[in-house]
Amino acid sequence: xxxxxxxxxxxxxxxxxxxxxxxxxxxxxxxxxxxxxxxxxxxxxxxxxxxxxxxxxxxxxxxxxxxxxxxxxxxxxxxxxxxxxxxxxxxxxxxxxxxxxxxxxxxxxxxxxxxxxxxxxxxxxxxxxxxxxxxxxxxxxxxxxxxxxxxxxxxxxxxxxxxxxxxxxxxxxxxxxxxxxxxxxxxxxxxxxxxxxxxxxxxxxxxxxxxxxxxxxxxxxxxxxxxxxxxxxxxxxxxxxxxxxxxxxxxxxxxxxxxxxxxxxxxxxxxxxxxxxxxxxxxxxxxxxxxxxxxxxxxxxxxxxxxxxxxxxxxxxxxxxxxxxxxxxxxxxxxxxxxxxxxxxxxxxxxxxxxxxxxxxxxxxxxxxxxxxxxxxxxxxxxxxxxxxxxxxxxxxxxxxxxxxxxxxxxxxxxxxxxxxxxxxxxxxxxxxxxxxxxxxxxxxxxxxxxxxxxxxxxxxxxxxxxxxxxxxxxxxxxxxxxxxxxxxxxxxxxxxxxxxxxxxxxxxxxxxxxxxxxxxxxxxxxxxxxxxxxxxxxxxxxxxxxxxxxxxxxxxxxxxxxxxxxxxxxxxxxxxxxxxxxxxxxxxxxxxxxxxxxxxxxxxxxxxxxxxxxxxxxxxxxxxxxxxxxxxxxxxxxxxxxxxxxxxxxxxxxxxxxxxxxxxxxxxxxxxxxxxxxxxxxxxxxxxxxxxxxxxxxxxxxxxxxxxxxxxxxxxxxxxxxxxxxxxxxxxxxxxxxxxxxxxxxxxxxxxxxxxxxxxxxxxxxxxxxxxxxxxxxxxxxxxxxxxxxxxxxxxxxxxxxxxxxxxxxxxxxxxxxxxxxxxxxxxxxxxxxxxxxxxxxxxxxxxxxxxxxxxxxxxxxxxxxxxxxxxxxxxxxxxxxxxxxxxxxxxxxxxxxxxxxxxxxxxxxxxxxxxxxxxxxxxxxxxxxxxxxx
Length: 936
What we know:
Layout: E1 2-6, E2 11-16, E3 19-25, H1 30-35, E4 41-46, E5 58-60, E6 67-74, E7 77-90, E8 94-96, E9 102-104, E10 108-118, H2 136-142, H3 146-152, E11 157-159, H4 169-172, H5 178-184, H6 193-205, H7 208-216, E12 224-232, E13 240-248, E14 272-280, E15 283-292, E16 298-302, E17 309-313, H8 321-335, E18 337-343, H9 349-365, E19 368-372, H10 376-381, H11 383-397, E20 400-403, E21 408-411, E22 415-420, H12 426-447, H13 454-480, H14 482-493, E23 500-502, H15 504-515, H16 517-520, E24 521-534, H17 545-548, E25 561-567, H18 582-596, E26 604-612, E27 615-622, H19 623-626, E28 629-639, H20 640-643, E29 645-657, E30 660-668, H21 676-689, E31 703-709, H22 718-726, H23 730-735, H24 738-744, E32 785-790, E33 794-801, E34 813-824, H25 826-844, H26 849-856, E35 911-913, E36 930-932
């Protein structure tokens, strides 16, 4: 990256990998600025690299530039923040290439220094010169951004250009591009979000042709704060690395490091997310823990003892229960099940009171809480005591493990510890170190083939000690200068310091593209096949064509989308942390894909697969339609044993087909004839906790298809049910179907649709036969396996079961759907946008900066349609300056900007406006403007 400056008009230009951004203070009037929200505005445009010298730009060569931090307004001055010194400190993921060398896939850089350059004044250009000529004291005292420079240069800020550093490895996935990273970022961990957000929006406005160049530059730098480090094991034959990433949350803004409780939005101070990542050639492992202030309403007062602090509740727990619930709802939506470990100082009466209130709120929220009064010595020397208390959580939550050699997900982490402590970074870090060590040892022992050496464990402990040291120093530095740092954080996060970027050229192109939307947008119908099957822990080697290709499916034109849900793909063994057998998922993926591609003229690819315990969801899309699918992401939710076990639960996938949002789910709900309420509770739990990026819920999608083993039964005697099944009297049975009754009552699955059932109950059979259950339990036949849909854009076409696939105690169920989707022809859209861009830039190229600015801000720049219906730019006459738009006070047709006055010689007591005239006053009409009032 290179920086260029122009004295008149004052402008800064950034050149990176051949792409140039030119920024200058906006020339719009104060009244126009207020109409745009009152934020200071900078004008941005692109320019060819060779044109910089022609426009009077001179390169700044006093620093090396590594990236753009963003823009900020301080004391009415606009500044451009640039990263000027970095070092590589971590590489969580890597691969081995030819020759046995390691090639890093993901790199993390630590920011060592930043500089701020003024956009609208040369008062601070001393920063452009060699500091030896001026002295650092002068720069520090005179520059408005000196405190921000010191903040971002303290060594606690990090960034990566290879992946989304704001999210955990499990959340961000293994292979996602910049678009996905931008859409899925966790904004509370992005410290320069206020500075860089306008640059991100600029990327969304530019044409597709420019975007590839923009992405290749260094204009988007998303910065997190905390600690990052990777250690490469030196004493092992094959490469092995251990990484820690700790992210400090900005959710409490200016009170980030304060000693205070929860706010009304459920935010707390000192919230840190810590992730340990272990990688070798075969596996990559990740585990996440969180810590933060106790989420209650409390305050601190000085104690009688010197430097002592006393903590006390501000109000009754009932008063802040809502905020408490918000806090844990947010945690659950990201991490799954949350379990609290509250560290209480021994013999502290005030903390004991706080702990009791904490437990009361946790019980009301149904959150597991463990109070621990261990000091640091016990946590260090007798960590087994702590592990014993947390053993249930460790096994239930699992860990993220990916088998690199086989390309499969071995396990995912479905819950998280939330550690709370008062006035301490040390003790939460000690807990995290103990838990991390235990999880790695348990996981590697279950994987097999991995040996944890004493050197590995000592390296692991050293890495956590480094994490404690740097976070502790940061915490204490901030706490000692709390008021000073609050002012800095206010400056960094305040909306009044945010700079708007006005891009007149692309703003006009966007307006034109909205007007031309019909030219590249159309509707089409796609077909969807949905299937659910409880396979009873079996991997069936024979043909499953009768399920995937029922008579309702045209073999010459297979559906565009296949989504298949499985239940009980594995038998879950208690006491094992990795409760997912990866081979079952691999087996069904291969079998389904092979079956789909063995018939018809369509070729399918698997685009997503997710597993939670025994619940598996697979998504296949035809190659011709895959290009229209984007924003693909998944989520899971346990519901077994009160949300602690993965023997029951749901797996969901969300994606956008062009512009239509789809959500597809499979779930396995509570079993048992009498467990209707528990199934309803499972449904509500899934609806509440399944979340996607930007907090998208299930109901926020245009089309929802929900399938699975819902386990709803028929509330009739066994003999009567079997007799009516023999007589094909399904209508009478359906009237007593528990799910049907729940839906009619508006309880479970409100607003969902289900086609009439005309097939026999799908459960329970003697495996390998067509005979309903003859075991001792003699279960009543029932339609446990169902497929429901929701949305105006989807219509169910068929519903049935594959009665001849008999290896399981269930029968596979299928449904086909037709969905009307809005499709954007991306190629045509890009072509039209590029044509407009090229024509406008060509005609603007001969104008001066002043003329170009005036023309682009005229508001009249709209291309006409030629005879060939191709968009063309309007004719721009050089030197012509269009007047500003009209306002309530000034009309462009009134000379010298005088205020307009109109006098009508009409007596309002005798006449009124004619109500018979058209609303539009410019329409010619024979009716008079005024008519006489009727006498009263």
